[in-house]
Design the sequence.
């Protein structure tokens, strides 16, 4: 049965033991329903002195039913909504709120480049 309050699917996970060369293993923290909403703003950061280093960042808020313990800044989230799949979004803040009956609000962002 679908829940209109949480119409999307999420997987929240952490890369453990990974280095810049790869490796490590994935620890799954949550897998289930969620609700993703996005900011209408896209922020642009320049990483160099010219536009070749330009990165666009989109911000999202993801809510899950109940409280999910152990989510930390830097964890990753994949969200499947009604139109697309966002993979590897980085969590920038996780907090327990009273939004929609006591759920965890996860603020995350993803780069479009």
Sequence:
């Amino acid at each position: 049965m679908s829940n209109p309050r949480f119409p999307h699917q999420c997987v929240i996970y952490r890369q453990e033991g990974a280095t810049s060369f790869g490796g490590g293993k994935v620890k799954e923290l949550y897998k289930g329903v969620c609700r993703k909403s996005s900011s209408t703003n896209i922020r642009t950061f320049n990483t160099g002195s010219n536009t070749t280093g330009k990165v666009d960042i989109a911000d999202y808020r993801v809510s899950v039913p109940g409280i999910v313990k152990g989510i930390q800044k830097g964890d990753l989230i994949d969200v499947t909504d009604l139109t697309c799949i966002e993979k590897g979004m980085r969590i920038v803040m996780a907090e327990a709120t009273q939004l929609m009956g006591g759920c965890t609000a996860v603020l995350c962002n993803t780069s479009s480049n």
